[in-house]
Design a protein that fits this description.
The structure holds two protein chains of two kinds.
Chain A lengths: L3 E4 L10 H15 L7 E6 L9 E6 L7 E7 L14 H18 L14 H17 L6 H12 L3 H12 L5 H14 L19
Parallel strand pairs in A: 1-2, 2-4
Antiparallel strand pairs in A: 3-4
Chain B lengths: L20 H5 L3 H6 L15 H29 L7 H27 L12 H4 L6 H30 L2 H28 L4 H18 L5 E2 L6 E2 L2 H6 L4 H27 L1
Helix pairs in contact in B: 3-4, 3-6, 4-7, 6-7, 6-8, 8-10
Classes of the chains: A alpha/beta, B mainly alpha.
Chain lengths: ~210, ~270
């Protein structure tokens, strides 16, 4: 069983329980394929509410072996949309499923992917779309239209971009090279005068 | 049928949850965030979490449209023809038709953006501003203040759609924006007509408008600076009958609202 550490412990600005979050991470990590001997450290910035949702998922060398999964995310990731400061069990499970699928990717066919802070918005949303599709097929209650909107906002609105999305969503195996090629494809099809290009923009000014 | 219908009794199904504005104002995270440089708050596709900000705002627009429909509907019914001219009621009835259409458009835009009806909590203070017992106060509080805010919000969302290349969002917001300009213009015109011989009543109504404007500036939600998510749509407000002085006053009200909200939040944290 992976060792999970949660920061902060306890939470003081939101009504989250570090133990509950840690247990949920253990459960989801196992289901999406993070190896049992890989430790997971998550740091939640509890001052950042909805809708400021952002996360970084990386693998660092701490602990030796395959490394350790290191997640930074805003508290808004796990916040109930109807009740401020309340933990949203169902929503948190889905967000963790996507993030931990990406963590499992980094331990496999995405070893050569840049760290999350260096991903473009286009790459990040494409990766999220792929991970969300796989999480959905594992039975997690992913809202596909929401994933599609995020993807379109970053990759463009149009039939060619939508076709790439369908491919990413439906793929059960994918590598960093595949994903990077898909993003090159959407960039070529993106007709917007100023497409979203800011590197790491998903959390650029949110993460301190 | 009941007249002067209270906000607590508005009909909603189980998907909707209401919360209070105080919950947001007294959220302890505000003070922590206030100490950080968060960059521009303007709704812009290149800002972090832009998709989630836009979705949350779009849902707020949706619930606002429901309440605007309810408010205009009440005004057609709450007053008899000794209190308001029939033609004003007809204008309110036309506004109901517009707001109904806006509700449907907002639901479809929510679908487009991956949202669900009731996903985010609703606050009913928009409808509460539509409960004044003087119809002239409803014209200023709802048509001029709240529908004026709708002009700012729709214009901001339209720009967001254009900047992000989202043809559906930009198109829908543009159509709704056109209606809002008409609603504000109706408020401006009826206010002038109904208070032509009663300057005191007009001043009371405009004071109510200032109060609602301050409430809806929501601690700096609307303004003309980078830290304001929603920007004042000057041109469209001019078309709707706002004078230059009124626009300057709105900017001032927004700044005051922001300062008051920060002071209130700090006081709560210190207590």
């Amino acid at each position: 069983m992976a060792k999970v550490s949660v920061t902060p412990d306890p939470f003081v600005l939101v009504n989250y329980d570090s133990g509950v979050l840690g247990s949920l991470i253990e459960k989801v990590a196992s289901r999406v394929g993070v190896p049992a001997d890989v430790d997971i450290a998550i740091e939640v910035d509890e001052a950042l509410p909805r809708p400021l949702i952002a996360s970084y998922v990386d693998v660092d060398a701490t602990g030796g072996g395959q490394g350790r999964v290191s997640i930074w995310c805003s508290g808004g990731n796990f916040e109930h949309p109807q009740y401020p400061r309340r933990f949203d069990d169902a929503g948190a499970e889905v967000r963790l499923a996507v993030d931990l699928t990406r963590a499992a990717d980094r331990l496999g066919g995405f070893a050569d992917a840049p760290p999350d802070s260096e991903l473009s918005e286009r790459q990040r949303e494409a990766w999220d779309a792929s991970a969300a599709g796989r999480a959905s097929r594992l039975g997690y209650a992913v809202r596909e239209p929401l994933v599609r909107y995020h993807f379109r906002l970053s990759n463009g609105f149009g039939d060619a971009v939508d076709a790439v999305y369908e491919r990413l969503w439906g793929a059960d195996t994918i590598t960093w090279a595949d994903l990077d090629a898909a993003c090159t494809e959407t960039a070529a099809a993106d007709e917007r005068p100023t497409p979203k290009t800011r590197p790491g923009a998903q959390g650029a000014s949110l993460r301190r | 049928m009941k007249k002067m219908f209270p906000a607590e009794e508005l009909a909603r199904d189980s998907r909707f949850v209401r919360n209070k504005i105080e919950d947001a104002v007294f959220d302890p995270r505000h003070q922590a965030l206030g100490k950080r440089d968060m960059g521009s708050a303007k709704l812009d596709p290149n800002r972090p979490a832009a998709a989630e900000r836009a979705r949350a705002l779009m849902h707020g627009i949706f619930t606002g449209e429901i309440q605007a429909l309810e408010g205009a509907g009440r005004t057609t019914f709450d007053f008899d023809e000794t209190e308001v001219p029939l033609k004003l009621k007809l204008d309110m009835a036309r506004q109901c038709w517009d707001e109904s259409r806006h509700c449907e458009i907002s639901v479809k835009l929510g679908d487009w953006m991956g949202s669900e009806i009731g996903e985010f909590a609703e606050q009913t203070f928009l409808y509460q501003a539509a409960c004044a017992d003087d119809p002239v106060l409803r014209l200023t509080g709802v048509n001029r203040a709240l529908e004026g805010l709708a002009i700012d919000v729709f214009n901001t969302m339209k720009e967001f759609g254009e900047l992000s290349g989202d043809p559906v969002l930009a198109f829908c917001e543009d159509w709704m924006l056109a209606d809002e300009v008409t609603h504000v213009k109706m408020g401006s015109d009826w206010l002038r007509r109904l208070t032509a011989d009663d300057p005191e009543r007009r001043e009371r109504a405009l004071e109510f408008q200032r109060t609602v404007d301050k409430l809806f500036s929501l601690g700096g939600f609307r303004g003309e600076n980078e830290e304001n998510p929603i920007h004042l749509a000057r041109r469209f407000r001019e078309l709707a009958g706002f004078t230059d002085d009124e626009l300057e006053e709105l900017v001032k009200v927004s700044e005051e609202s922001k300062a008051e909200a920060e002071a209130m939040s700090a006081a709560v944290q210190d207590a």
